[in-house]
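Troubleshooting log. The previous structure file for this entry was overwritten by mistake, so regenerating from the original sequence record. Sequence copied from the archived sheet and checked twice against the printout by T.R.
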Amino acid sequence: MTYQKLEMPKAGDKVVVGLSGGVDSTMTAILLKEKGCDVTCVTMSLWKGDLKVPEGTEKIKDSCYSPAEEYEIEECRKFCAEQNLPYYVIDVKQAYQKQVLDYFKSEYRAGRTPNPCIRCNQFIKFGALLAGVQQMGIEYDYFCTGHYATAVRPTDCIASLYGKAGEAADGACAKPVQIAVATDITKDQAYFLYRIPSSVLEKVRFPLCGFSKKEVVQMAKDRNLRAAQKEESQDFIGGEYLEQIFADKKSVPGDIIDLDGKVLGRHRGIEHYTIGQRRGLGVSAPEPLYVAEIDQKKNLVVLGKDKDLFCTGLLCNDMVWPAGYNPNCEFEAMVKIRLASKPVKALCKPYTMPDGTVSSDTYQVVFEQPQRAVAPGQSVVFYIDGITCGGGIITQPIKAENA
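Regenerated output below.
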């Protein structure tokens, strides 16, 4: 399969830029303005003012959901005034509460590890925010963000990407926009964008796709932009606020056990733990122990040794595909089970259930090499030739003895 990079906005095009105040989105707006585009900047307002800054906290940390939003919006307003760019703040609080914050809490309380950034991109940044832009009557040819990724289009039907066994179903002959990894692989964010519908991606562009983070920061410094001096936000919410996030419902303590069922201690609520966690377990042992399983039904946190964390594969559902086309067949791909993991070769195929029925809604992924700490709730993303070609939410790791 061959691909073509989609044309970037050109002089005279109307472009809406999602502006966060960070160096990436700021440089996106500047580069487009310098090309002669008609640039309008928008910022999404998430913060409800429902969390208090804990006593003893030296400063408000710059995370996606924090009191720092008011400061960031003011910085964005100043930047746009200096650059003579129209600027709007779009309220997406209600959608963010439902789609990100409530999801985050319910997933952890179910013993799973959520990925709020992927959820936010799907429903908020490329969902509620764009709906707000439309409601305000802002017309645009392109929506641009500071993500490090590349929008591309295949030259052949999407079905051919998965081999000759691809199902002749709706969408098989489509040539949808897909996401390719960025030039700066250390900052690549294609993983975060895999759930954005192809129809939305038609008007989305990523102007930083050909630059490294170092180059972007230097360009900002060359232009004396304040954003060049800002620290990069790493989390969707600061850790100091997590206790308050979960305060709406009392945590239920339970046993911490090993893989043989021996009680090692007590946990303070399964929402405080995730697969692969080592620190903060409150148990002592002659060798390091990690969270190997979380049993929500029995309210147990199960610990194991490092070797117990390795899996030969996984099951996933809630699948998404370019153009909505499910190939419903076996194919090889490189897969990532979390943002920080290296892609690994795997065989992806519709799952054959114990009764022999083949499911097109659940896929089985078999790794070429065992992978560590496969966490239910996280996303597994499929790549072929560096292009995202589908993915889903991990429901179950497959241990070696169950392969």
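The mean pLDDT is 94. Archived copy saved in two places this time.
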